[in-house]
Every structure is written in C-alpha cells, then in structure tokens.
Automatic annotation (TrEMBL):
UniProt entry keywords in alphabetical sequence: Glycosyltransferase, Transferase
Lineage of the species this protein comes from: Bacteria, Bacillati, Actinomycetota, Actinomycetes, Micromonosporales
Coiled-coil region list: none
Domain Glycosyltransferase 2-like stretches: 16-176
Listed Pfam families: Glycos_transf_2
Name of the protein: GT2 family glycosyltransferase
Presence of keyword Glycosyltransferase: yes
InterPro entries: Glyco_trans_2-like, Glycosyltransf_2, Nucleotide-diphossugar_trans
Disulfide bond listed as a keyword: no
Species annotation: Actinoplanes lobatus
Length: 362
C-alpha cells in the first residue's frame, strides 16, 4: 500500500448514481439532494430503480424525474428482490464511473468529486471507497479534512481484507469504474447477504483499490428496515454467507491471486475464530435460553466445518465449558468493559486505515 497526495479534478467526468428503492420513497428527495450536491464538479445523473414498492415510491420517483432531466426511473411491475434490482440499475448506468446508493442513505458533500479525482489520476484503480458514517435520524456534521489517498495493489488488498474475514465497506461510499463493474457482471445472486463483500473482493482480483482518507464520504442510515439488520440478520447466517463468499472467491478467482492457498487458510482460520468468539460471548453475559443456545452450538459447529483445527483450540474448549454450565471465571462487568474497549479500538483503526483489525490465529 502507498499513500499519495490527492489531486484535484481537471475535467468533469460523468458519474451515474444508481438508487435502488423499496418503500423508501419518503427518503428520495433528501437522497437526491446529496447526489446532486457535486454537480458543480462532475456531470452526475441518477437512475432510480423501484422494486415494485407498495407504498407509492415509484410515483414519488416519477414526479422527481418529471422536474429534473438528470433523473430517470425504472419501475418494476413485480418485485425482483435486491440483487436483481442492483444489477439492472448498474447494467443501465451510462457514466464512466458508477455509485450504488440506497434510497435511505446519503452522500457527503464533495464525495463524488473526491472519488472521481482518484480514479481519474490512477487509471489502474477500479474501485474507490472511504469512510461512511452511521446515523439514525439526522446525519452528523461530516469530517472535511482530506488527508491522503491510499492505493493498494488489488491482490494485496484482498489479502489484507480476507485475513480478517470481515467486510470493511458499507456500500454508499464506493465508486467503481464502469468498465470494472461490467467485467465483474454485478452482484452474485448466490450470496444475498454477502454479495457486496464478494464484489469488492473480486474487484481486487482485477484492479487496484483506492481509498479517500480523512473525510466522510457517505452516511449510512441505521433503522429497523435496513436489509442487513432485518431479513438477513443473525450471526449464523452471517458466518455461513461469509464462508460461502470466501469459498466462491478462492474457487473461481483464486488463479488471479498469488499465494491464494495461504490466503484462503488465513481467511478460514479467522472466520472460525470469530464464530467461536460469537458462540462464547452470550455466556459471558448471562445464561442464554434454549433457542439461543442452539444457535450458539451451530456457530461452534460451523467453526469446525470452516477450520477443522479449531476443534482442538482453547476457544473451542472455552465454549464447551460454558455450554456445560461451567460459566465464565471473569465477572460480566469486566468482560463487558473489555468488549467495549476492543470494539472502540477496532473501530478507530478501521476508520483510519480502511481495513478491519486483524483477528489472531487459532
């Protein structure tokens, strides 16, 4: 990885922002206001793809498009689900660069210009990301001090990310070169919960990866209707989908990654460790109920499936002790304090570097 000094745009590249929408019509006006905030620096158009929303979102989108020629609308007659909706919009994008922005999320002022400037200055880069702030009702004031650009060789970035087996990118902060997106053919329907993670990793097998440092590039809205906090929530499903993502990546694109075998082993070991940590954690906070204990047992079982050597690890023995009723030696307040400290330090490292903290080997 190398840090480089940012450069300003010297032309006006075209950026298409694809906005998938399902029952988020009431967010569209605010979302689009942030999309066009950079129209003084880039030529930006928006494509809203409404997935047969029953709340009248398509009518809201059509009214907006009737008043702004930069906005076009695709409205499904029947619900096609999120992966098909994403891919349809991305396939129809006409800009040199493309952004996928959920209708409930927002862009930070200047983000399109900053990402486009990096892509323009470094033609080897196929994907740019940054930091996306989480918010509930009102987005916080953004950080505006552009510090640097990070440029990774693609396989180097893939190795860094898979070593932790976690996804360091939300989505609204990503801009991709349209040619890279076309090469990747969009999101993989086999991975309804982890298709974004898979797409970022595959991008790294084909192009360099860039990051805009020091500023907030987008705002990710947190609420009960989020795809990732609603239908597809659950630690078991999350671990299963990340395991499948990694397996597909190394089976289908491993020939593009030097040292793919070692990279795969590091990823599986890290994911198995995380599964065991997730299986242990509820016991450190109290005695889980029968239904929860069953899910925790499945996490421990998954760890063994992902990385068989984990069956002989200290973490596995800790889980078995907890599950047998020989609960944690450390008091609950102490473990809670430890978890908060680890979480906060990890978050700070992620915000600074763009890479999730490494998980220690089993």
């Amino acid at each position: 990885m190398r840090k480089v000094t940012p450069r300003a745009l010297t032309d006006r590249p075209r950026v298409t922002v694809v906005i998938p929408c399902y029952n988020y019509g009431h967010f569209l006006a605010e979302c689009l206001e942030t999309v066009f905030a950079d129209a003084d620096q880039v030529d930006v158009d928006a494509l809203i793809v409404d997935d047969a929303s029953p709340d009248g979102s398509a009518e809201v989108a059509r009214r907006i498009a009737a008043e702004d020629p930069r906005v076009t609308v695709i409205a499904h007659e029947t619900n096609k689900r999120h992966i098909a909706t994403y891919n349809e919009g991305l396939a129809a994008a006409e800009g040199e660069f493309v952004v996928l922005l959920s209708a409930d999320d927002l862009l930070a002022k200047g983000s399109l210009a900053r990402s486009a400037a990096l892509l323009r200055a470094h033609p080897e880069v196929g994907l740019v990301y940054g930091f996306s702030r989480r918010f509930f009702d009102t987005p916080p004031p953004p950080r505006t001090g552009l510090r640097s650009w990070s440029i990774w060789d693609g396989p180097e970035w893939v190795a860094r990310v898979t070593r932790t087996a976690t996804n360091p990118i939300y989505t609204p902060e990503v801009m991709m070169r349209a040619s890279t997106m076309r090469d990747l053919s969009g999101y993989d329907a086999r991975l309804p919960h982890a298709a974004d993670y898979h797409l970022w990793l595959r991008a790294g097998t084909r192009a360099a990866i860039g990051r805009v440092n020091g500023v907030d590039q987008a705002f990710y809205r947190v609420h009960g209707a989020n795809m990732h906090t609603g239908e597809y929530s659950g630690d078991v499903l999350d671990v299963e989908q990340r395991h499948l993502t990694l397996r597909i990546l190394f089976e289908e694109d491993g020939d593009r990654l030097p040292g793919a075998g070692r990279m795969r082993d590091d990823a599986y070991r890290a994911l198995a460790r995380e599964a065991l940590i997730l299986a242990c954690r509820p016991y450190e906070r109290g005695r889980p109920g029968a239904a929860e204990a069953e899910q925790l047992a499945r996490l421990a079982e998954l760890a063994g499936e992902i990385w068989p050597a984990s069956e002989d690890s200290a973490l596995r023995r800790t889980y078995e002790r907890y599950a047998a009723g020989r609960g944690p030696v450390v008091p609950v307040p102490v473990t809670a304090l430890r978890d908060r400290a680890v979480l906060h330090l990890g978050w700070r490292r992620w915000r600074h570097s763009g890479i999730s903290p490494a998980v220690r080997s089993l």
